[in-house]
Amino acid sequence: VHGDTTLPSMPAYHSKQNDAQARQIAGCFILPLRTEVRGPAPRTTEEIDVVDEILRYFKPNLLFRNYEVQGAADRVLIYGTLYVTNCLLTLAKFDRNKDAGGKALYTQAISNFSVPGDANFALGGFFGEPGSRAETDELRSYFSQLRQEIGIRLVQLVYNADGTLNKYWMCWSKRKFLNKQID
User: Does residue 1 surpass a pLDDT of 80?
Assistant: First the structure.
């Protein structure tokens, strides 16, 4: 017998902002964004914000079946990762049409979606419940702002210069993160 034959498990990528000083709703930080989209998130001029982390860690984190939350910023990372998957599925319908793809992502970002506290929110085990209706509305507004900014940046990454979809991004569209899907 050659000892333990199980492969070591690699840790998932976590947010570098887990120790940030930020407002928290339902166990989720309202992190600053480098954005022009209006919403409750403070604006930042930092080189890397949470949207950059979501897009940078999207592919490697999809490979993990489990994700250990190490802080409130990780919840934003989880939500954003699931949202990027939805965006890729939407963009698959818009090959060679970057403008239409961007408009579709904007429409998806502002459409009605579930947040923590809603009965059909897919990530109920990861998030707490907002303390009041005002907190629920603020979190919904923050997620809408986050979704819009993810869409803006993702369109720039996913479309090639000739307007076609980048196959190295689109190949990830069918993978599920944590075996979950959000609306």
Answer: no
